[in-house]
Amino acid sequence: MTSTEGKTTIALCGTGKTYPVASTGQGQALADAYSKLRVAPGTSVLMWVDGRIVSSGQPPVEQVEVQNLSRGTLNSPCEG
Fold first, then answer.
1. Residue 39 dihedral angles phi and psi, to the nearest 5°
2. Long-range contacts of range 4-11, CB-CB < 8 Å, 24 or more positions apart?
3. Which of 26, 39, 37, 28 is nearest to 6 (CA)?
4. Separation of alpha carbons 41 and 53, rounded Å
5. Phi, psi of 34 (to 5 degrees)
6. Over the stretch 26-59, which tens digit does the pLDDT of each residue have?
7. Are 69 and 34 contacting, i.e. CB atoms less than 8 angstroms apart?
8. Which of 24, 30, 53, 75 is the most buried (most CB within 10 A)?
């Protein structure tokens, strides 16, 4: 996951597709955990989360709604 210009995004390891993180659920907790782990703005951090892809707005935009945070680490590739 990364955060630049106040926008938190998450890339799914299985697909590489990037989504914005919804402000609902544990979105703020994820952003807080990211800011504690990163070494510089925009640094990628590998996070393990439970969540779902939701669609909202007009036009609809897909976002990840984080339901639970497990852990995070720096400098670790996506695991299969």
1. -100, -20
2. 4/41, 4/42, 8/34, 10/47, 10/49, 10/64
3. 28
4. 25
5. -60, -45
6. 888 888 888 888 778 777 888 888 999 999 888 9
7. no
8. 30
